[in-house]
Amino acid sequence: MKFTEKLLKHPEFLRLQKRVQQIEQDRIYCHHELSHALDVCRMAWMMYLEDQMQELLGSGSETGLKNKYDMASVLENSEKMTEAGQAASTADVSETKMVNLQEKKDQFYVTGLLHDIGRVAQYETGEHHSEAGMRIAEGLLTDIEYPAEWMAQTLQIVGVHHGREESREESCTMEYYIRRADHLSRNCFCCEAADSCKWSDEERNQTIFW
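The chain above was modelled as a monomer; its predicted structure follows.
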């Protein structure tokens, strides 16, 4: 994932991750360092894929399901099929779909990694982490040459992700998955600081299932 790898090597991103870890080392409530960001990335992507698979299974499109989620095997065998024009054309289409899926994953991960990037600013200056995060994220995304067509969506999610979990009836956008993953990644059901946590019982994640 091209842009995810660039972000994970960016000096300012790494500095902010180290700084938030230092600030929160004695914090008894939820943390916001890299491990949390990666949890959000993985959970959001997993939920997105599950919904895509359910959609395809619901439509009875076994061919579509294989093409979308088993591209590795298709591409692995594509070289053996190049002598037949029709087979080569099919492999080209499959490769395009695989690239698109990887691009979507890259966008999910970059957005998840940046969703709490403003936490240091909030701790040090009092500026809300979502507002600070949009400003900081824009600079980082510009530095890694993030695609312009992805920029607005990622920044918008960084700016609003702190709201509580969206209802299932709302459209399953990337914002929905990032918000939901941010909430469900918290192990409220076994938190030792639960008695003094500001979250209400309704807001807390009480199970590993969703």
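The chain has a mean pLDDT of 81.
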